[in-house]
């Protein structure tokens, strides 16, 4: 009886084993970071997510085929930081990632043989795990559960992205090389035109094997030609670099604080950048024949000029291209190099819609209109060379231009004195307006008037010209210096009538602004004490800072890192519109608005393109121009806290995938009556320069 029961148990166990061997289970529906032997990751149903949710591994599709890749889980665009089968695209979506009983990690698909990721070495007790570093590792374990060996890792097989902790260099024992290779195009992740390597002392970017750019030596935690990587203003000192050189390996790696998202991407156009941060190397930077730090010296062909280049244009196509290159391994950057070195080539673009292959033209093109049926976007040569048949035309033009220039020089010389006097008078009027406001504010409520040429204001306060102070102190000479404090220097002086004075000159290095200066004047002029010298007057002279004054400085005397962002926003609007903010006044009924408010009104109405300079006609990209206007409006917002940082602005301009928030009302958006625009004229002439004048005697 007992023997019969044992036999039944054995038969039942054998049947269950047969059933298990007959089915390959998929990964549990619950989120996991590991594939175990016999399990599979299906194309569209399952994903691997690292333990803390930092990275995700799964299948994705492009125009060139389907692939297995890794991306940051929080990245809405799912930009891939690693691709398993980058040079072996899968047709269709019938694919799975499988770890078989022998420890082979492979992609199975209906279109051909399995794509094995690791070696054929048998490892029966193994698992594949996606780590929070972004490293996908295959490990073998002992029977007691302890780690026996790391069999394979995605970090040892990098694609176009360097993650924190990943190595660039070489393993001297195994000969394994760690380097990045750009994608051929945005739709083809196969190895492309550019590679990034570590030569032991610096990063080296190569184009088809030839040196294209180098970072310079890594020294004192910074690279010679990209020192801003360690800038506190731009990158907040987030990077820590590590360089190792010993008998086993030579490599470079970097790290960032926990929680910081970082990935260095090598682009198909030869750029290098960290996502959401300013670029290290611009796309196509070293192909411009300009002296950029780190770029290898390149000499153009004899038929080309350093000022020649290619511009993307919509042109009318008539006829076929002069030649084509059908190789799917060629990217757009390869097409440019081939056209550049062919003296007969005048334009190029990609042969296939996925951005591979090349087409070349040797004809001239006409600019296409929006409704032209035969238009196509090409990269057209913009040449600065003068042909032999037209050189005499340019000689005549140059002669006419020279005559015109000579006439203009004469006119400028005769009118320069008049202009300089008018300009000086205008600057004086602006400076006097600030001082007039000082003496007629609420703190000087008993002031009746401040008149020209030294007449008294509130509390017998006199307004001195800066030239008179310079003369009294012998141009602030060191012999006249009495002392120095945290806010500036004090000089002795003598007025023309013989009165001795002490002059305090506010230092530019102090934190005291116009508001603090005004408050000091208001306080001292009211105080009467035997130990305080009597305040005779003051003088304000501009700080000679070129730019547009942000509202927080104009209203409160506060200057911050966002102040220059405001100036950049106004400048960007000026470039787009072709108009100066200083001289722009758009009449809105009985009111006048400035350039920023006018741009904001157009943006609200969905008619932003009305701001664009008509001289540009159709030579710009509508999408880019709308983005420029949007970014400018973000920079000129009234609240400094709402404005982006300068590094964020650069990222917005260089990366069109960065989303843009809606802007708020611009600064200085209060509408002024048109009749008030000339209200500053006729102000009494005073001075400027943060200077106070006191008698040297006590009261």
UniProtKB/TrEMBL annotation:
Signal peptide as annotated in the record? 1-30
- Recorded E.C. number(s)? 2.7.11.1
Q: Does the keyword NAD apply?
A: no
Where does the source fall among the domains of life? Eukaryota
Instruction: List locations, semicolon-separated.
Output: Cell membrane
Region (Disordered) residue ranges read 675-699
Q: Sorted alphabetically, which keywords does the UniProt record give?
A: ATP-binding, Cell membrane, Disulfide bond, Glycoprotein, Kinase, Lectin, Membrane, Nucleotide-binding, Phosphoprotein, Receptor, Serine/threonine-protein kinase, Signal, Transferase, Transmembrane, Transmembrane helix
Corresponding gene? Answer: VvCHDp001030_12
- Catalysed reactions listed for this entry: L-threonyl-[protein] + ATP = O-phospho-L-threonyl-[protein] + ADP + H(+); L-seryl-[protein] + ATP = O-phospho-L-seryl-[protein] + ADP + H(+)
Q: Which spans does this entry mark as compositional bias, Polar residues? A: 689-699
Any Gene Ontology CC annotation: plasma membrane
The record's family statement is: Belongs to the protein kinase superfamily. Ser/Thr protein kinase family.
Kindly report the protein's main subcellular placement as a broad class. Answer: membrane
Cited PROSITE patterns: BULB_LECTIN, PAN, PROTEIN_KINASE_ATP, PROTEIN_KINASE_DOM
What is this protein's record name?
Answer: Receptor-like serine/threonine-protein kinase
The segment(s) forming the Bulb-type lectin domain are 32-151
Q: Which residues form the Protein kinase domain?
A: 476-699
Q: Which organism is it from?
A: Vitis vinifera (Grape)
